[in-house]
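[step 3/7] fold_predict: job queued, chain A
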Amino acid sequence: MNNKLGIKKVVSVFLLTVIIATYSMVALANSEKIAGEILISGNSINGQVPLVKVNGESVQNGRSIFSSSTIVTSDNASAIINLGNTGKIELAPNTTLSLSFSENTISGDLLNGQVNVISAANPVNITTVEGNLAKLSAGESATATGGKSQTSAKVGGSTGLLLGVILGGAIVAIIIASRTDNNRIALGGGTVVSVTR
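[step 4/7] structure written:
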C-alpha cells in the first residue's frame, strides 16, 4: 500500500511539472516579436548567385528578419525588406544596413550603399556614416555618404512653379470676372438682359 502512495506522488509531481512547462512554453510562444520578410533579386554574374547576408549568414527569399539585424547585399543583389503595415524598404547592391524596427517605426545605421523607401507609415530614420540623420518618406532614399535624396517624381522645382503660376492665373481671372459689372459682357461690351426683373 505504501508503494501505491509513493507511485501516486511521483506521477502527481511529474504531471504538475509537465503542466507548468507547457504553460510557460505557450507564454513564450505568444511573445509578440515583430518580424519582417526579405525578398532578394539580382542577376547571376559568372555563376555567382545574388547573395544577401543577415548577421553574417547567407539567406534566401522569404527569410524572416528581426529587429537589430545587420543586412549586407553583394554587388549583384538587392533586397526588399517587407515589414507589413510598418513599411517596405529596398537595399541597393553593395549595401550594409543595421536595421531596427517596431510596430510603428523603421530606423537604421547605413554603413555602405543606398536605402530606398518604398512605403512607410511614418518617416524612416536612417543615420549615415557621417552621423547625419535622414528622415525618409516613400519615394526617397539615403546613401551612406551623401545623405537624403529623392527617387520619385514629386511636385516641386520647376513643375511646382509652373503649376503655381497656372493656379494663380486662374484665381485672378475668377476674381476679375466676379467684380465686373453684371450689365456688360467683357468681350462684346453689350448689355446683358436679366431674366429677373
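[step 5/7] annotate
The first helix runs from residue 2 to 29.
Residues 151-158, 183-187 have pLDDT under 50 and may be disordered.
exit 0
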